[in-house]
Amino acid sequence: MTPHRLLINAYVYGVLIFILAPILVILSMAFSTTEYLTFPPRGFTLRWFGEFFGNSRWMDAAGFSLTIAVVTAVVTAVIATMATYAMVRGAGRLGALFQVTLIGPIVVPHIALAVALYLFFQKVGLSNTVTGYVMAHCVIAMPFAVFTIAAALSSIDRALEDAAMSCGATRFTAFRLVTLPLIMPNVLSGGLFAFILSFDEPVIAFFLAGIRDKTLPRMMFDDIEQNLTPIIPAIAVLLTLLSIAVLIGAGLLRRWAARRARPAAD
Amino acid sequence: MSAMNFFQPQGRSMSKGGVLMLMAPFFVLLVIAFLYPILSLLSISLLEPEPTLRHYEDVVTNPVYARVLFRTLRIALLVSVLSLLLAFPVAWVMARSRGPKLAFITACILLPFWSSVLVRTAAWAVILQRTGLVNEALQFLGITSEPVRLLYTQGAVVVAMVHVLMPFMVLPIYGALRNIPVDYMRAAGILGAGPLRSFREVILPLAMPGVLTGFILVFLTALGYFITPALLGSPQEMMIATLISQQIREVLD
Question: Matching Pfam families, A to Z (chain A) (predicted)?
Fold first, then answer.
């Protein structure tokens, strides 16, 4: 290896340590027996997990976030599938409008959207309601879900659906029996993405939250701001496990999708 | 496949009514939870109490707002430049790696998409606190004799923001670099260019679209960043998003 390649490699591994180290540090602290956060962690205890699961305020927040995330995932997947299907099956000018408006939630900063939603939801009584959070999170997740589903719709063999319709199936039947099963992996991974995005969303949660019901990210924000207890590292471990589970799920979905794509080509 | 290919209409066309019905929920959601709120925010800024540009004038001329605005721009720029410096070599090595090494680097870079911003911000709060890792290392090395204030400074905000946003710089640059054939570098070498010159005249121009995409992405995200500055920054050196939240809180109370 030439000296400058060695240098570049050393630099790159330095950068990777910069990315990994903070996360490893906070995860390791979840098991420390000390009352304050210290590194290296001392001893080993599962006490902080117990405190998280035994505390009704944390549990309420986790439950509230879970409800919002599940509903967001389902609503996003359904609405995105409907609209994307209509667009790919020739929506004309409405489809063009659809594509343009998709960019909006990507370019508008979350802080601006959060303030706008705060002012509007306050007026119509949607602040700190499941409905309010779900609508906000769906808007943010929609572009990602649409891209995922559009990718599947454009790659499947459209003749299959046309054949079903030639044989007398209505468009809905053809969609339900032919198209939907083919695009299902992507619909599910769009939903999965919406779930994680919603479960982890701190900015909108900051503005929409009331005094009582709070989402998990909002509770975490307050804890980090005020006293930073060892419960935060414990939650970090749990969130990481959840992410790993979701990743494995997404990987399985990809393999499933690959298996589905093959017979059409043969 | 480019994104636009996804959206090619295909298959037997649907009726106008069918299209409208399927797209309706999307547009209803978008109008209620995005367009209307954002437009009314815009109209408040332009029309209240009467049609005026005064509020925008205020932001630029009021020394308090102007200073926050300028500071936010400066921090966002600094974060983007630092991210670029860290990201480019990573993208370079990724583009030239294969197999497990590529998989390992990619996994590290994709980490932010799996881990919460709050968790990462909390990690920096712990590392930078008075009894934190950095302070202990500084004292151990004899650089300082007592804990230094690292948390609640602009430096803390910049480091943590680079940590969160840098991966968004790596991916577009990697995309651009991967498409440059290895032969180009070799050809430049054969024609007599040294590594630096072939980098400057061959690689950099070809990588430019990726660099610009990453830079704009990180810069724009950094401008509106809320969580990290709110938790790690100092109240005296506030950024725009924190100022917004503070003003909203004041109105609320």
Answer: BPD_transp_1 (PF00528)
Of B69, B110, B44, B64, which Cα lies nearest the Cα of B224?
B69
When divided into structural domains, chain A yields a total of 1
Give the pLDDT score at B3.
Answer: 47
- Report which of A148, A180, A138, A146 is spatially closest to residue A254, judged by C-alpha positions: A148
Q: Which of A36, A151, A235 lies nearest to residue B6, judging by beta carbons?
A: A151
Let me know: does A171 contact B18? Beta carbons within 8 Å: yes
Write out the residue range of the structural domain in which residue A72 sits.
55-214
What per-residue confidence (pLDDT) applies to B19?
A: 86
Q: Mean per-residue pLDDT for A193-208?
A: 92
DSSP annotation of B35: I
Yes or no, beta carbons of A4 and B35 under 8 Å apart: no
User: How many A×B Cβ pairs under 8 Å?
Assistant: 250
**Contact (CB<8Å) A225/B231:** yes
Task: Tell me the HSE value of B141 on the side-chain side, using a 13 A CA sphere.
Answer: 7
Residue A27 lies in a domain: no
Q: Read off the pLDDT of each residue in A93-107 and give the average, rounded to a whole number.
A: 86
Please give the Cα distance from B108 to B87 (Å, whole number): 12
Largest interatomic CA distance in chain A: 70
pLDDT at A260 over 80: no
As to burial, measured by CB atoms within 10 angstroms (0-12 exposed, 13-18 middle, 19+ buried), residue A161 is buried
- Report if residue A207 sits inside a domain: yes
Q: Are A19 and B125 a contacting pair at CB < 8 A?
A: no
CB contacts, 8 Å: B36 with chain A: 120
| Percent of chain A scoring above 70 in pLDDT | 97
> Residue B2 — very low, low, confident or very high, per pLDDT cuts 50/70/90?
very low
Q: How far apart are CA A200 and CA A65, in angstroms?
A: 9
- Cα separation of B83 and A19, whole Å? 12
For residue B195, which residues of chain A lie inside 8 Å, CB to CB? 4
This prediction has a pTM of 0.87
The domain that contains A168 carries what CATH number? 1.10.3720.10
Nearest CA in chain A to B1: A151
Q: Minimal CA–CA distance to A141: which of A180, A184, A103, A193?
A: A193
Nearest-CA distance A126 → chain B (Å):
11
Chain A from 219 to 248: CB within 8 A of any B CB: 220-221, 224-225, 228, 232-233, 235-236, 239-240, 243-244, 246-247
Whether the pLDDT of residue B65 is over 90: the answer is no
Is there a domain that residue A242 lies in?
no
Contacts for B6 with CB less than 8 Å, ≥ 6 apart: A88, A147, A150, A151, A153, A154
Largest CA distance in chain B: 77
> Is A129 a domain residue?
yes
ipTM: 0.86
